[in-house]
Amino acid sequence: MKPVSFDRAHALVLECANRLKLPAEMVELRYARGRTLASDVTADIDYPGADISAMDGYCLRSQLLANASEAAPITLATVAGVDAGHRIEQIPDGSCAYIATGGMLPQGADCVVPVEEVKANDNGSQITFSAPVKSGNYVRPRASELKTGDKMIAAGTLITPFVIGQLSTAGQVVVNVVKKPTVAILTSGDEVLMQWEKPLPWQVRNSNCAVLHAQAEEAGALPLEIGIAKDVGDHAFELFNKAAAAADIIVTSGGISMGRKDPFKQVFARLGIEPVFYGIKMKPGKPVFFGMYKDKPVFGLPGNQTSTAVTFELLVRPFVRKALGLLPDRLKFDLPLARPSHNDSRRDFFKRGRIIEQNGCSMVEPLESQESHMLSSLAGADVLFLHPASSDSLPAGSAVKCWLLKG
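The structure assignment produced for this chain is given below.
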């Protein structure tokens, strides 16, 4: 199978994500931030539940001020005031009452005049008005925001702190959300040790598992670490079957390229997993496998640290987000290059960059280290930016597409 373009691979991944149907679950509202609503939420009451004041002021019947002017002001007696959370049934005709923002208009009042627009006598018992007002002035009518039964929030909405405020207004104590997909993480290599082990010169710690765990969690999934597959025997096969039984999405790291002992490449062939694509014309991350096994997506990512992280970021993360009903990609934008960029790979090169300010403008500065094994440069990057295969060199000032990694 020939490698595909990154754009084609990205489109195929999102197409498959649309077919993954995740179940719903109920969670307490206080734990719902960052989750996706699984069903519409409707208003159980009118909001506001009565005509209420939009200002601190005085409520009255507007007709009383029909002839008020600077030359001929009208003075009215005040009665007991209306504070938010309290009410008076009505005010006598020919009088007014103080009302706080959010206070319910009593019978006999149809408008509010702000305190800044009136004059009060020394003890506040007499209020003078010097201009007419219209009925409804500074009044929020009942059900002006929501009527009982109106859709407040649609299914598929990302629950932010502000959405939590709406849900609380709707009386939601628990909410129906899309269940987080479980992402099984498998790494490989006889040279790979757990993080707490001290490596010999020919060994490395399993940083890929830690990075993938954090990336899966950040994407909105539940990571499940399955283990490190040995390069020989049935160990990789056994771990893969364990992952397939436990997870919604399977992600492997390493063991998928041209090595004679690459275990996951052999496992995929043994299980008859047909690739949707195998290989992408991109750097880092050319040897990427994507296929379906028993309706479960399988991502075979390369083993080099940056290649693993970048391909998860650009392919697996969008799959997870799309399956959750969210925007798949991180924020994308164009920025000018602060200095030249070179690409002799004849592949789309997703480079690591840092956002800097030059002459009052934001620009992207390519980091010095761009090798696929250099995780340190990714840790220091603000963005990935695309140096397309179509150009060997981009001069300073060239606009490049950026994917925000931080913030």
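Interim note for the steering committee: The longest strand covers residues 348-358. The first helix runs from residue 6 to 17.
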